[in-house]
Give the backbone structure.
Amino acid sequence: MKAIIISLSLLLSSCATQSFVFDKKHYKSYAPTYTQIDSFFLGGIGQTTVTREVDQICTDKGKKIASVKFKQTASNIFFTAITLGIYSPRTMEVHCI
């Protein structure tokens, strides 16, 4: 029982973030301009390619890209754990300046 509790607490507390920074001066100072949650099933097996023109997200608003972040938050990990990896969400944030 103790091992299960420790395993679950480590699983739910581990988050991952990948960041692509285009403007080092401003990338931390603004809230995300655009947020989207992508869904992956069975670890991405048979996943089709998803292409997003992130520069269009910012230029449509008359701005430029500061950073793009892909996050696996605690809630994303929770849904992955309770579905035993069948459903794996991941959050994308685009920061414009």
Remarks:
- Strands lie at 16-21, 34-41, 65-72, 87-96.
- Helices lie at 2-13, 54-59, 74-82.
- The mean pLDDT is 79.
- The CA atoms of residues 68 and 94 lie 5 Å apart.
